[in-house]
Design a protein that fits this description.
With about 350 residues, this protein is of the alpha/beta class. A hairpin with a 3-residue loop joins strand 10 and strand 11. Helix 7 crosses helix 8. It is globular.
Length: about 350
């Protein structure tokens, strides 16, 4: 972590703003970190040299790719009192390990949600966030041990060309610092309808809040990339306006999430499958995802955009196949619905001019 001693400073203009690298962190209170991120925490245990895996990987990545930042100057020095109080950190905010048996096969899904954060250490406030989602899917006849899962998560993060940093690399050029009076956007509420539950893995059926977190991460990641926006972090507890971060040096810091200028509510109403046609050899099923999207101004509850959205994808199932893994199919349909919703928001003149363009980077 960085140590700051402030006697007053002035934030530079957007194109020349200096921000400092703050390290890797786990989102959530200290008591929840080990429970929420058991595999990632075990990977991040210090080595004999005292190095932490996630810290080492992220610091090396940002050092190698510092030239990709075009709107800010990323510094790895110790901040001085006259420097900007702005710090960039990479935080893990969601870890999901799904193990299922599909007939004679064992399936493993690892889902990681992260936030590329810009933090104001003087105001102890979140400035902006860029959500990142990565996923690994594997299947085999043997069951997956805890060591197997650790190894696979390790490959998702290790090295400049890993899954995480390949996704992150494309976001660096858009990192910028907005003024305090400029508008902000936040995914405020995510609801999961009863008709979605039968298609979800058991872990998500039991804890819909965990699935809501993943939905918010995925929609937010697409919204930032498609519309060029920086968001405020999604809060699982809508009443909680704080974001707690635990860094590897054991420091625990809490940052205020400021009220957003505009908010988006995402309602996953449900999924549906329909048999389109079948032969003796195979059947063609259509899977659909159904959403409700609402864009509004929270202070006055003024609604700019409100619409149902649906999207379908086909799935061919051979007659010999006894088990169908439906979660990847409905997830593909859900992504299509997200992209459709974002396109509709951009095509709606009122929403585009009064919300998206105002919050554009």
């Amino acid at each position: 972590m960085l140590v700051f001693f402030w006697v007053g400073s002035t934030v530079a203009t957007r194109a020349t703003t200096k921000i400092f690298y703050g390290g890797f962190a786990f989102a959530g209170s200290a008591s929840e970190v080990a429970k929420n991120y058991p595999v990632a925490v075990s990977l991040n245990e210090p080595s004999s040299e005292g190095a932490h895996f996630f810290d080492t990987q992220s610091r090396e990545f940002f050092r190698q790719n510092a030239s990709r930042f075009t709107e800010v100057d990323l510094s790895f020095d110790i901040a001085r009192s006259e420097d900007t109080p702005l710090v960039m950190a990479l935080a893990l905010s969601d870890e999901k390990i799904l193990r299922e048996e599909l007939g004679s096969f064992h399936k493993l899904v690892i889902q990681l949600g992260l936030e590329l954060l810009v933090l104001d250490f003087r105001a102890m406030e979140v400035v902006s966030s860029r959500p990142i989602c990565i996923e690994l899917i594997d299947a085999r006849k043997e069951s997956f041990s805890d060591a197997d899962i650790r190894t696979r998560m390790h490959t998702m993060v290790e090295g400049d060309r890993s899954q995480l940093f390949t996704v992150l690399r494309d976001k660096l050029a858009s990192v910028s610092v907005r003024g305090k009076n400029q508008c902000t956007l936040q995914i405020k509420t995510v609801t999961i309808g009863e008709k979605a539950l039968p298609f979800l893995p058991e872990a998500y059926r039991v804890a819909t809040g965990a699935y809501s977190q993943m939905v918010a991460q995925q929609f937010g990641s697409l919204l930032t990339s498609q519309a060029g926006l920086a968001l405020l972090p999604y809060a699982k507890d809508g009443l909680n306006s704080k974001m707690s971060l635990r860094f590897s040096d054991a420091s625990m810091l809490q940052f205020k999430i400021p009220p957003p200028t505009f908010a988006v509510d995402v309602g996953v109403k449900g999924f549906k499958k329909v048999l389109d046609k079948s032969t003796e050899a195979e059947a063609l099923w259509l899977y659909g995802a159904f959403l409700d999207i609402r864009v509004y101004e929270p202070d006055f509850n003024h609604v700019f955009f409100e619409s149902p959205v649906k999207y379908g994808v086909p799935k061919v199932v051979p007659a010999s196949q006894k088990f169908v893994d439906e979660f990847p199919v409905v997830s593909e349909a859900l992504k299509g619905a997200f992209l459709t919703a974002i396109e509709q928001m951009q095509n709606d003149k009122n929403t585009n001019e009064k919300v998206l363009m105002k919050c554009k980077l």
